[in-house]
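Please decode residue identities from the backbone states below.
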């Protein structure tokens, strides 16, 4: 055959999430920890790599890591599922609770993978947009859930990319209103310190999602985990890829989790840097900066896409452009980097905005001059 038949028609309006790797001197687009693993952990990891049986399939359930996570959270290993990043676990939840004839409740603007995974599995998506301050419309959500047809709800908490936290009372109301799977995505838990863990015992439909990609400097390894009732974990185990978490990742994530106190200093440093970032952004004329409980900050700036481009091309600083996302017009998201990176970003943005203001004034006076000339000619 000289051709291939078309893929499923419902893929036609899906675009690949990321097609090319973007590089810059200052990487502030993906909410990663700006620092690599501490040297002592790298040394330990290097020591243990030789013992890996590369020829053998990995432990499908990441048992060692799983029990470390369970113990730290006061749970049984049967309440924990480790995945190839939080992303895989989001897909697993939709594979098990979504699919054709089933419905996901999405609260945009939020993490895009919920909608993408729903779409690609033929799951219907009901969207209840957040308000101007990015608050969840609690009344509308509870009313919709009360209709009884929602199978799964995703709540990013803190919400990526807006940074805000939903009130715990609302999350509890949601859990009390529906028997849908309620996935509270705590990818930024180590920064926000807010967790729904205390409510797990009373709510068998609560799933808590976490990741090693953000605070724990392991984005390259692809490791995430969820906490849920054992029945939920058992269902998810039916749809998951059996060997998705490789041996090297299991080793690295176990080491990092066991020694996670060493990350405290960096987390505190990043929270201080976030204050510097927010103060700097708030002081810039024309910039609106939103409150964040995570390691990133969303801000609104006129001509955001042009600003994004100037940051990259003239200053080699990569941030995330959300200006084409409904509800996030003129918004960029910047990850909290090292103090040096934050200062470099603020200085670059200041320069870009100053030069835009200058050219605007010139633009205005050029127009004024044209008008004057025209007027003079008319006279
Ligand atoms: C980063 C992130 C994840 C998961 O990332 P992984 O790298 O796949 O673990 C999940 N949810 C949100 C909201 C995130 O920002």
């Amino acid at each position: 055959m000289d051709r291939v038949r078309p893929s499923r028609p419902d893929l036609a309006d899906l675009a690949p999430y990321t097609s090319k790797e973007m590089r810059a001197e200052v990487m502030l687009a993906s909410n990663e920890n700006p620092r690599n693993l501490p040297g002592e952990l790298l040394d330990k990891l290097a020591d243990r790599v030789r013992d890996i049986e590369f020829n053998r399939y990995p432990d499908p359930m990441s048992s060692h890591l799983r029990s470390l996570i369970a113990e730290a959270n006061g749970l049984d290993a049967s309440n924990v599922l480790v995945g190839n990043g939080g992303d895989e676990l989001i897909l697993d939840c939709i594979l098990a609770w979504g699919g054709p004839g089933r419905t996901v409740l999405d609260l945009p603007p939020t993490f895009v993978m919920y909608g993408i995974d729903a779409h690609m599995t033929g799951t219907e998506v009901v969207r209840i947009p957040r308000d101007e301050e990015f608050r969840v419309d609690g009344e509308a959500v509870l009313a919709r859930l009360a209709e009884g047809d929602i199978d799964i709800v995703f709540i990013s908490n803190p919400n990526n990319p807006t940074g805000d936290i939903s009130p715990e009372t609302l999350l509890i109301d949601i859990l009390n209103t529906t028997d849908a799977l309620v996935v509270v995505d705590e990818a930024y838990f180590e920064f926000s310190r807010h967790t729904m863990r205390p409510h797990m015992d009373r709510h068998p439909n609560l799933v808590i999602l976490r990741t090693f990609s953000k605070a724990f400097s392991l984005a390259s390894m692809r490791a995430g985990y969820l906490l849920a009732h054992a029945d939920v974990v058992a269902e998810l185990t039916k749809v998951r890829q059996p060997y998705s978490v490789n041996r090297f990742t299991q080793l690295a994530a176990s080491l990092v989790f066991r020694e996670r106190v060493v990350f405290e200093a960096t987390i505190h440093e990043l929270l201080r840097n976030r204050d510097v970032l927010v103060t700097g952004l708030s002081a810039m004329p024309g910039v609106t900066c939103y409150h964040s409980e995570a390691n990133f900050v969303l801000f609104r700036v006129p001509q955001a896409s042009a600003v994004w481009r100037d940051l990259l091309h003239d200053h080699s600083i990569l941030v995330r452009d959300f200006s084409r996302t409904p509800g996030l017009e003129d918004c960029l998201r910047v990850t909290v980097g090292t103090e040096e990176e934050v200062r470099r970003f603020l200085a670059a943005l200041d320069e870009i905005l100053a030069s835009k203001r200058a050219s605007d004034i010139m633009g205005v006076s050029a127009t004024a001059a044209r008008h004057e000339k025209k007027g003079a000619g008319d006279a």
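Observation: Residues 31, 85-87, 111, 156, 160, 185, 187, 211, 213-214, 219, 224 surround pyridoxal-5'-phosphate (CB under 6 Å).
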